[in-house]
C-alpha cells in the first residue's frame, strides 16, 4: 500500500510504465546530442585544471592561514589584503578563476586566510551586514 502522505509515489506506482518510457526517451535524446559525453568530460577536465591552478596559487601565497597557520587546503581562501575581493570578482570576467589568475600577476595583493579568519576579518572591517540585529 502507498502511504497517504506521498501522493507523488502513488502517482508513480499508477503510471510507472509511462514514466519509465518517458525517462528512457529523454535519456536517449540527451545521449544523441552528446554521444560520448564529451561536454561532461570537458567539464571534469576543466575543474581538475582549475583546482590544480588554485593549489599552485595557495602554495605561492605560503600555503597557510596568515593568522592561525592552518594549512588545510579545503578551508584556505584567497583574500585581498586591502579588501575589495567582491568588487574584483565583479570585474569584466567575473569568475573566481580570474581571481586565481590574478594571484600570479600580483601576489603581493593577496594573502591566505582560513574560512574562519576570513569571516572574522570581514566582521572587524565591518564588511558584512550584522545578522544579529537587536
Ligand atoms: Zn586562520
| Span of the ends, CA to CA | 51 Å
Helix-strand sequence: HHEHHEH
Q: Which strand order do you get reading across the main beta sheet?
A: 1-2
Count of helix runs: 5
Q: Helical proportion?
A: 55-70%
> What small ligands are held by the chains?
zinc ion
Structural class: mainly alpha
Averaged pLDDT: 87
Strand % is 5-15%
How big is the Rg? 23 Å
How would you describe the shape?
elongated
Spans with pLDDT under 50 lasting ≥5 residues? none
Layout of secondary structure:
Elements: H1 7-33, H2 38-60, E1 76-80, H3 85-89, H4 96-105, E2 110-114, H5 115-124
Antiparallel strand pairs: 1-2
Helix pairs in contact: 2-4
Zinc ion is lined by residues 65, 67-68, 70, 113-114, 116-117.
Characterize the structure shown:
The chain has 134 residues and is mainly alpha-helical. The protein has a domain at 51-124. It contains 5 helices and 2 strands. A two-stranded antiparallel sheet has the order 1-2. The longest helix is centred in the first third of the chain and has 27 residues, at 7-33. The chain is elongated, with a radius of gyration of 23 Å. The N and C termini lie far apart (51 Å). The site of zinc ion (ZN) has 8 residues, from strand 2 and helix 5.
Amino acid at each position: 500500500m502507498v502511504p497517504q502522505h506521498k501522493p507523488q509515489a502513488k502517482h508513480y506506482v499508477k503510471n510507472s510504465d509511462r514514466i519509465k518510457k518517458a525517462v528512457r526517451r529523454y535519456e536517449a535524446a540527451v545521449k544523441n546530442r552528446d554521444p560520448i559525453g564529451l561536454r561532461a568530460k570537458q567539464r571534469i577536465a576543466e575543474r581538475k585544471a582549475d583546482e590544480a591552478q588554485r593549489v599552485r596559487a595557495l602554495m605561492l601565497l605560503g600555503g597557510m592561514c596568515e593568522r592561525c597557520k592552518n594549512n588545510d587546503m579545503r578551508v584556505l581562501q584567497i583574500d585581498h589584503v586591502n579588501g575589495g575581493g567582491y568588487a574584483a570578482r565583479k570585474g569584466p570576467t567575473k569568475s573566481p578563476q580570474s581571481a586565481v589568475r590574478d594571484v600570479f600577476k600580483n601576489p603581493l595583493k593577496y594573502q591566505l586566510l582560513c574560512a574562519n579568519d576570513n569571516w572574522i576579518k570581514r566582521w572587524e572591517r565591518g564588511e558584512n551586514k550584522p545578522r544579529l540585529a537587536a
